[in-house]
Design brief:
By secondary structure, the protein is an alpha+beta fold. The chain has 4 helices and 8 strands. The radius of gyration is 18 Å and the shape is globular. The protein starts with a helix and ends with a helix. The relative contact order is 0.20. The N terminus is likely disordered.
């Protein structure tokens, strides 16, 4: 009997979290939905939604603001990372490789309460791309429905800053480069 009750409780909990087949995204602003639990998601141009303008303090330049609006007309690889995150330590050189190959990479450093430690991480790895410092996750709140607990993750925006791809896993430069090259060729 306890197993039956536990099984029913688990089924109800799972059903309560699912959106069903009738879930739709309304409006033109990006609201994240992972179709079928995919971890690599791409959007055709007609299906892309505009990302919110994400902005915050520049990690390396205290007092200076950094915004996606600074990169108008450019495709952007938005990488969520933290120096405390093991996979991020492996992924950071991959993001730097993307930047050196011409991709505009912008990081969002999350859940790093000690700014100096995150800055040391950037310096020690020779990272040249900018990052927004977001220790309390307020910048990420603008990403409606986006799973903020999946770090690292990467969102690729097209030239109009519409979401073209999402990677809910650590990536290699070779995973993201074809997406950025395709976006660069778009009108």
């Amino acid at each position: 009997m306890k197993r039956l009750v536990a099984g029913l409780a688990a089924a109800l909990a799972l059903a309560g979290c699912s959106a069903g087949k009738d879930a739709v995204v309304q409006g033109s602003s990006f609201s994240f939905v992972s179709p079928g639990g995919k971890i690599d998601i791409t959007y055709e141009a007609a299906d892309r939604q505009t990302a919110p303008v994400l902005a915050g303090e520049d990690l390396m330049n205290e007092g200076k603001q950094l915004s996606l609006a600074d990169y108008a007309g450019k495709a952007v690889v938005l990488n969520l990372w933290g120096q405390w995150c093991g996979p991020c330590r492996t992924e950071a050189p991959e993001m730097e490789s993307l930047a050196k190959q011409g991709a505009q990479v912008v990081g969002i450093d999350v859940r790093d309460p000690a700014r100096e430690v995150a800055q040391d991480f950037v310096r020690d790895r020779g990272l040249t791309y900018p990052s927004i410092y977001d220790p309390d996750g307020r910048v990420l709140l603008k990403l409606s429905g986006y799973p903020r607990n999946i770090i690292p993750s990467t969102i690729v925006l097209d030239k109009q800053h519409r979401v073209a791809a999402v990677f809910l896993r650590p990536v290699l430069a070779q995973d993201v480069l074809p997406v950025t090259q395709r976006l660069a060729a778009e009108a």
